[in-house]
Amino acid sequence: MLYAHSLPDHPETDWQTLEAHHAGVSRLAADFAAVWGAPETASLLGKIHDTGKRSDAFQQRLRGRPGRVDHSSAACLYLMRQWGEEARPDAGRLLARLLAYPLLGHHGGMPDHGAEAAEGTLAWRLYGARARDVPDWRAEGCAALPPSMTFWRELQALMCLEGRKPDPFAVSFLLRMLYSCLVDADFLDTEAFCAADRAALRPAWPSLAELAQRFAAAMSERGFLSGPEVPEEHLHAGAATACGSEERRAAIATARRYMLQCCCRAAEAPPGAFSLTMPTGGGKTLSSLAFALRHARAHRLRRIILVVPYTSIIEQNAEVFRQVLGDDAVLEHHSNFLHPEEEREDGDARAALAYKLSTENWDAHVIVTTSVQFFESLFADRPSRCRKLHNVAGSVIILDEVQMLPIPLVQPCVAALRLLTRHYGCSVLLCTATQPALMRSACLADGFREEEIRHIIPPAALPPLFRIFQRTRLEQTGVLDDETLARRLSGERQVLCIVNSRRHARELFLLLEESEANLHLSARMTPHHRSRTVRIMRERLAAGLPCRVISTSLIECGVDISFPVVWREKNGLDVLAQSAGRCNREGEAAAGRVYCFTSDKPLPKRAAELARRRQAFDAVAGKEDPFAPDSVRDYFQALYAACPSLDEEGILADLRADNPPGRVPEHFRFETTARRFRFIDEQTESVIVERGEAAELIRQVEDGMLSPAILRRLQRHTVQVYPHELELMRRDGRIDSVKGFLHVLRGGQGYNERLGLDVALEQGLPVADLLF
Predict the structure, then answer these.
(1) Which of 173, 200, 227 is the last residue in one of the domains?
(2) Radius of gyration of the chain from its Cα atoms, rounded to whole angstroms
(3) pLDDT tier for residue 455 given thresholds of 50, 70 and 90
(4) Final residue of a structural domain among 461, 490, 515
(5) What is the mean pLDDT of residues 705-725?
(6) C-alpha span between 284 and 298 (Å, rounded)
(7) CATH number for the domain that contains residue 620
């Protein structure tokens, strides 16, 4: 009898047989891949993935013999041997080499093809030194496999993108999706046998049908679904009303209802790519959810995935979803999320664990996550990141603030979105007030074709809609030095000033007089500190008290706050539009004032992208309404054309260079791609500021109470710094390492309650920090 898994303190008769494990994984993997048309191939992978466990070496390891045993190579050799004896052995061996990527990587990660002499590569494992050391897996006892042509026929369409020629990116994406099916099925079957109590905790999420009913009830209660259909001509009358008037407020309500109705109508259209261009304040979050729920039910899609660029937005949007769908409906997957049961001392650990289990493979029906988590998973190589990918298939994917896609990665991101819509049953909703130019062009060769994207809001309706929500007047002031700017800001009662760098924010803030009315906001402050500062801002604004804020760009995304006056240092048009969204947000005044200024400080050496954004803004700055959809389109076209590459890491270019046209591609760099594809390319370290709650949590960790809940709570008290900055503070004697991996700023030395972390102690240590 051959076994796949043992159980401690149980006789061998209780162990899981290899046959049972292979059957369980095969069945699950086939179910996962059936959604997008490759159940036979996924079933095959599950049926043979642990063939190497047939070896005496592995069976003895189960019985206690120490050491590692290669049990993943045998499955590849199994395919090579069986299909190499077919009438067309070259085709069989080629398919075996392709399927070797997920088979070899089902524990450690999918490898690069590489060279035979390079340790860890696919070539080394199939043909190099490692291939000669594979333990004997009793090949003569293995059953015959179906012919390779059975699987070629199933996979052929999924390998192509345009026409019938295999596309390297499409093939690599297919292999990653097959890998996802295999590793998730392997994890789940192993968990069901080895940790049945844990497996039983996996929650049953509310169905989309039930969520649609909850949504309809919540929207009806708010009066959002009532009222007659709004004809387009009513929008033109609303656009002629004065900002701040009762007529304009009525026009805004009418416009929101019109856009919601457009979303509900568009939901009946077949799955594919959709754009939802809505002015700021138009109710994008609820309208996009209305579309997604109706669309998913109309076309039997399985889940809704909201993808948001920043955690500052994600928490806000997830809360909106919960308000209309229920607290039990939303799987929130990002680093800052703490399950409510984890926050309580007497919390239900089982409930928290059940929630965490769903984040592993996204088995919920409504998921809210970050752009980093979503896109980096699509280009990942490790089981922990990839096992959720098969559950992305057959989903409605809402990309909020889609203009925030990193320019160096726009090309591969769009290529992945196109594949999800063409082959994997997804609908993609591109949501923003500033729609980027993602259509195919000279600089975006892999962009969407015009006919691939359906516009939910009719283009003819956009000009009056944007005029209805126009609440600000833009003025360009030219170059200003900091002293002049500080005087202008000091002369305002309530004003927000946003600059491009943390250093500039600090220097400008120090020019203002020290007053409780003057506030600073930057990423040098902990999330806890920033939240407290935003709360103070809101309180002062609501009470009509003086409130002058100097901030970096972090206030632009997702912070629901409104100032009568906003100053913004020159940047891109999309950035300026985000800043304008913090001005006169609810149309309280006739027109908020937005001033765009240029600092007299020279641009940093690494500010090439900022320079290109400014140049692209200059191309549309003279238009009557630079925030209108046509202006935004022209801005992004100018910006993309000015960039050296929209695939700066060569993700797609390398695939095509490694695989000449006219042949089925087989040379892939999965490990290298995962390393290169990073939304945030600058490596930073987290420093915990040991004050208040963080000091108590650190004491608990030092006493041996280390837990995921404590680590997540500590995230609220961290600041991200560059490695050289961490080393500087370590040399100053301010940093201690706890448990070998937590960097702790002891006593919060150098952390300023107004400015946040002072890495170089430019302001000196506060007197309180010098007292012992």
Answers:
(1) 200
(2) 28
(3) very high
(4) 461
(5) 86
(6) 21
(7) 3.40.50.300
C-alpha pair distances (Å), 440 with each of 409, 415, 448, 643, 647? 15, 11, 5, 16, 14
Predicted confidence (pLDDT) per residue in 365-413, tens digit = 999 998 999 999 999 999 999 999 999 999 999 999 898 899 999 999 9
Query: What is the distance between the terminal CA atoms of the chain, rounded to a whole angstrom?
Result: 68
Tokens of 315: 């928490």
Inside any domain, residue 723: yes
Question: What residue ranges in 525-667 does DSSP mark as E strands?
Answer: 547-551, 565-569, 592-599
Q: H-helix or E-strand containing 370?
A: strand 366-370
Residue 550 — φ and ψ, nearest 5°? -110, 125
Calpha distance 163→482 (Å, rounded): 58
Buried b (16+ CB within 10 A) or exposed e, 649-677: bbbbebbeeebeeeebbbbbbbbbbbebb
**Residue 215, token pair as written in the block:** 């949504």
Number of Cβ within a 10 Å radius of residue 450: 8
Number of domains in the chain: 4
Helix-helix angle 573-580:608-618, to 10 degrees: 80
Give the separation between CA 328 and CA 330, rounded to whole angstroms.
Answer: 6
**79 exposure class (CB count in 10 Å sphere: 0-12, 13-18, 19+):** buried
The secondary structure element, H or E, covering residue 180 is: helix 168-194
Do 8 and 151 sit in the same domain of this protein? yes
124 and 168 fall within a common domain: yes
What is the H or E stretch that residue 472 is in? strand 472-480
Is the same domain home to 45 and 138? yes
Contact yes or no for 121/59 (Cβ under 8 A)? no
CA separation for the pair 125, 131 (Å, rounded): 5
Span 549-573, average pLDDT: 90
The 10 Å Cβ neighbour count of residue 143 is 8
Q: Exposed, middle or buried by CB within 10 Å (0-12, 13-18, 19+), for 741?
A: exposed
pLDDT for res 312: 62
pLDDT at residue 487 greater than cutoff 50: yes
161, part of any domain = yes
Q: Is residue 238 part of a domain?
A: no
**Of 187-196, 393-402, 578-587, 746-755, where does mean pLDDT reach its minimum?**
578-587
Q: Are strands 472-480 and 592-599 parallel, antiparallel or unpaired?
A: parallel
Buried b (16+ CB within 10 A) or exposed e, 540-564: bbeeeeebbbbbbbbbbbbbebbbb
**Whole-angstrom distance, CA of residue 168 vs CA of residue 650:** 13
If asked whether residues 113 and 196 sit together in one domain, one would say yes
pLDDT number for residue 382: 95
Q: Is 608 left (phi over 0), alpha (psi -120 to 50) or beta?
A: alpha
Tokens of 387: 């096992």
Among 196-200, 645-649, 725-729, 761-765, which stretch is predicted with the lowest mean pLDDT?
761-765
405 located within any domain = yes
Contact 215, 288 (CB under 8 A): no
Residues 39 and 126 in one domain: yes
66 and 97 both lie in a single domain: yes
Q: For residue 371, give the amino acid letter.
A: S
Q: Given the structure tokens 């996962």, which residue do they identify?
A: 32
pTM: 0.90
Spatial separation of the C-alpha atoms in residues 652 and 506, rounded to whole Å: 40
Same domain, yes or no: 146 and 83: yes
Q: How confident is the model over 43-57, as pLDDT tens digits? A: 999 999 999 999 999
Backbone angles phi and psi of 480, in degrees to 5: -135, 140
Mark whether 188 and 135 lie in a shared domain.
Answer: yes
Q: What is the domain range of residue 534?
A: 471-626
Give burial (CB, 10 Å; 0-12/13-18/19+) of 478.
exposed
Q: Which of 134-143, 329-338, 388-397, 739-748 holds the top average pLDDT?
A: 388-397
Tokens of 314: 């994600």
